[in-house]
Design a protein that fits this description.
Oligomer: single chain
Radius of gyration: 18 Å
CATH topology: Immunoglobulin-like
Order of helices and strands: HEEEEEEEEEEE
CATH architecture: Sandwich
CATH superfamily: PCu(A)C copper chaperone
Strand content: 35-45%
Length: about 160
C-alpha cells in the first residue's frame, strides 16, 4: 500500500513540473508567424561563428519565407541545412530562404536547418542573451531574444524545410 502511495506521489510531482529540455521562452509575433525558443550554445574564446536555433510556427493561410537574420556583432546570418550529397556524404548547403508552409512548425536544430552568424568577434557564456532580427519576405521583421544555453543537451523535434 505504501509503495502505491509513493508511486502516486512521484507521478503527481512529475506532472506538476513540465519537461525543461524544450521551453518556448518568450514568443515573438509578426503577422501570422510565431517565433519561440531562440537559443545558441555557449562558445569558447576562439569561436568565430555561432549557430542559432529556434522554432517558427505559421498560423496563417499563406506560406511565409524567412529571408534574413542579423545581429549587431557579426555578419548577417546565413541559413544552412544538412543534406546528403550524390556521393552519400553529409554536406552543408546554404539556403537563400526558408519557407514555412501554412500551419507548419519548423524547428531549427543542431544537425538540421540553422542560422549561422560569422565573424562574431566575442564569446558567450551560459545564461547570457542577445537579440537577433529576423526578416520575412511578406510579414516584415521581428526581434527575438536568443538565450545562450549549454550545448548538446537538447532533444528538439525537427521538421523538413524543403
Amino acid at each position: 500500500m505504501l509503495r502505491r502511495i509513493s508511486a502516486g506521489l512521484v507521478a503527481a510531482s512529475l506532472l506538476a513540473f513540465p519537461a525543461t529540455a524544450h521551453h518556448d521562452g518568450e514568443i515573438a509575433k509578426v503577422g501570422d508567424l510565431r517565433v519561440s525558443h531562440a537559443w545558441t550554445q555557449a562558445t569558447g574564446h576562439m569561436a568565430h561563428a555561432i549557430d542559432v536555433y529556434l522554432t517558427i510556427k505559421n498560423t496563417g493561410d499563406d506560406a511565409a519565407r524567412l529571408v534574413g537574420a542579423e545581429v549587431p556583432f557579426a555578419k548577417d546570418g546565413v541559413f544552412q541545412a544538412q543534406v546528403v550529397g550524390k556521393d552519400g556524404a553529409l554536406k552543408t548547403r546554404n539556403l537563400d530562404s526558408v519557407v514555412i508552409k501554412p500551419g507548419q512548425r519548423i524547428t531549427f536544430q543542431p544537425g538540421g536547418t540553422h542560422i549561422v552568424f560569422n565573424d562574431v568577434g566575442r564569446h558567450f557564456n551560459v545564461g547570457q542573451q542577445f537579440h537577433t532580427k529576423l526578416t520575412f519576405a511578406d510579414a516584415g521583421s521581428v526581434t527575438v531574444d536568443v538565450l545562450v544555453e549549454q550545448g548538446e543537451e537538447h532533444d528538439h523535434e525537427h521538421e523538413d524545410v524543403s
